[in-house]
């Protein structure tokens, strides 16, 4: 349980779902974790309580990472507390609202890209200024299978944003490889988290699960396991990849 001992991990959007599961798993394996949240203070504090109760170490930092000043403050707070950031998990993201393409307004389109793409750019830039000096580090971006299939009919804006995340991932991997920095992404399939509670009906859930070859929805822990692998030394020769975790769907 010491595979991440000595590492400091910053996870955005870590108050619930995939972000929280990743924070708790990495902390259980020895990492010091910086838990970021925007509005769900209760969830962030609950995650912190779980980590501390199990003997882990973490801090909680509120910040809207789609805004530069707040993203910079988040990173600076983590550096002041722990002196380094070894792994960044860019998890913050949201559908915002499902909508047929012809009903997507400019505000919804822009907000979707701010939350899912601009946030990654801002936090990554702030962290990379630190990682480049150390000539080491890892960035793990949370994408979606929607980037592959386009999510037609109700989620094209979200799929387009996650497509940008994939391109962003590969570009960062190539530019920062000479500095010993590895950048990869995880593309979850249909995962039962508070995300689905908010954006999916039970009818939609019941319709999708039979189409999954493994015949079950994924869990936040399924994705956290891949995040943990990519953050470990076992993945030290992997960069620029998008890993789909979808039960075969």
Automatic annotation (TrEMBL):
SUPFAM superfamilies: NAD(P)-binding Rossmann-fold domains. Keywords: Oxidoreductase. CDD domains: SDR_c (cd05233). One of its GO terms (biological process) is bile acid metabolic process. InterPro entries: NAD(P)-bd_dom_sf (IPR036291), Sc_DH/Rdtase_CS (IPR020904), SDR_fam (IPR002347). The keyword Oxidoreductase applies. One of its GO terms (molecular function) is oxidoreductase activity. Belongs to the short-chain dehydrogenases/reductases (SDR) family. NCBIfam families: PRK07231.1. Homotetramer. This is Oxidoreductase. It comes from Compostibacillus humi.
């Amino acid at each position: 349980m010491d595979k991440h001992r000595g590492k400091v991990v910053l996870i955005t959007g870590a108050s619930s779902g995939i972000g929280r599961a990743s924070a708790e798993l990495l902390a259980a394996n020895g990492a010091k974790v910086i838990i970021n949240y925007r509005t769900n203070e209760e969830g962030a504090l609950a995650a912190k309580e779980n980590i501390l109760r199990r003997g882990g170490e973490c801090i909680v930092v509120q910040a809207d990472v789609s805004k530069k000043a707040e993203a910079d403050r988040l990173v600076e707070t983590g550096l002041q507390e722990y002196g380094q950031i070894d792994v960044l998990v860019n998890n913050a993201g949201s559908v915002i609202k499902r909508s047929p393409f012809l009903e997507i307004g400019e505000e919804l389109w822009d907000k979707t890209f701010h939350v899912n793409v601009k946030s990654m750019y801002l936090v990554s830039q702030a962290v990379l200024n630190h990682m480049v000096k150390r000539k080491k580090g890892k960035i793990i971006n949370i994408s979606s299978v929607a980037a592959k299939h386009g999510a037609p009919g109700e989620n094209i804006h979200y799929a387009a944003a996650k497509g940008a995340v994939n391109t962003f991932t590969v570009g960062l991997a190539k530019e920062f490889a000479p500095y010993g920095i590895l950048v990869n992404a995880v593309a979850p399939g249909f995962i039962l988290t508070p995300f689905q509670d908010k954006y999916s009906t039970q009818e939609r859930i019941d319709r999708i699960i039979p189409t999954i070859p493994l015949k079950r929805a994924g869990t936040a822990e399924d994705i956290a396991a891949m995040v943990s692998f990519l953050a470990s030394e076992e993945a030290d020769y992997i960069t620029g990849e998008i890993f789909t975790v979808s039960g075969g769907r």
